[in-house]
Amino acid sequence: MLNEHTLDQLRTLRLDGMVHAIEEQATSTAAAALGFDERLSMLVQREVAWRDARRVERLLKAAKLKVSMACVEDINYRSSRSLDRSLVATLAGGDWIRNAQNLLITGATGCGKTWLACALAHQAARSGFSVLYARAGRLLMSCRWPMVMAASRAG
């Protein structure tokens, strides 16, 4: 196993995914049978996965989702909800975000608008987009406040 000095250097370089992978490989008999190239490849893959997971975790925390566990894989398509699977799949792809388009979700009280919005936001964060959950009223108030201030100063 690598000595503590090497592990400390990896931590200093913020390669925490590699540190954890090395610690796991030290206890694994299967890893010992692998060649240098294969083990190094596993360490690099682990570091990439570690960083991706941290990035998504950070994006989701900043998103302030009301339903943090909502995800597109768990969407209920029962007939009473009238959700179009192909439309939801297209929205989950994120092209509407890349094309700077907006999405407005409407429906009756209790039909799952918030959950669906959070699921799409969760998917967008997993795709690397920054997202922020905001209810319409609060969003409109945050947009209107600077305009009211500007109007009162001009008058």
What are its keywords?
8 helices, elongated, mainly alpha, 155 residues
> Which regions have little confidence, pLDDT < 50, spanning 5+ residues?
none
Structural class, by secondary structure, is: mainly alpha
Number of helices: 8
Task: Output mean pLDDT.
Answer: 85
Q: Give the ordered list of helices and strands.
A: HHHHHHHH
Estimate the strand proportion.
Answer: under 5%
Radius of gyration based on Cα positions: 23 Å
Report on the architecture of this protein.
This protein is about 65% helix and about 0% strand. It has about 160 residues and is mostly helical. It is elongated, with a radius of gyration of 23 Å. The model has no long low-confidence stretch (mean pLDDT about 85).
Layout of strands and helices, then pairs:
Blueprint: H1 4-12, H2 16-27, H3 29-32, H4 36-63, H5 85-93, H6 95-98, H7 113-126, H8 136-154
Helix pairs in contact: 2-4, 4-7
The gist of it:
Helices cover 64% and strands 0% of the residues.
